[in-house]
Amino acid sequence: MEQTLYEKVGGEEAIAKVVDYFYSELVLKDETVNHFFKNTDMEKQRRHQAKFISFALGGPHQYTGKSMAKAHEGMNLQPAHFDAIATHLHDSLAHFGVSERDIDTALTKVASLRDDILYK
Q: Which distant-in-sequence residues (6+ apart) come within 8 Å of 17 by Cβ?
């Protein structure tokens, strides 16, 4: 039986490291998107993001928060914002040694949510 991407990456512990790096080293230092997190409870956000990344990698911790459209309502996210976050996710996964092929698989799943996130 083939491993899921979630298992290949290293499971929950590895996802937590990816999420921490994603926010602390990339997203919160990026002036094009960090303002969206200005009034955000970052511990709660990290938990939600870990569940979301688990979902994107085929893991057992499926995202059960608000719908993507509801979660991004009123933010008026533009394609450049979405692309910046996707790039940061790519770079976070690559930083922890995830192969480009596996990153592409995860980002394809994330890209399927694009229309639910933009212009809300």
A: 96
C-alpha distances in Å from residue 44, one per residue of 19, 29, 65, 97, 114: 12, 19, 11, 26, 22
> Alpha helices of 5-113 — where are they, by DSSP H?
5-9, 11-21, 42-56, 68-71, 79-95, 100-111
Q: Give the SS3 label for residue 104.
A: helix
C-beta of residue 103 within 8 angstroms of C-beta of residue 64: no
Contacts of 75 (CB under 8 A, 6+ apart): 36, 120
Q: Give 62-112 pLDDT, tens digit per residue.
A: 666 678 888 888 899 999 999 999 999 999 999 999 999 999 999 998 999
- Give residue-wise pLDDT tens across range 17-54: 999 999 999 999 999 999 999 999 999 999 989 988 88
Angle at 40 between CA 38 and CA 44, to 5 degrees: 150
At 24, the amino acid letter reads: S
Residue 55 pLDDT: 81
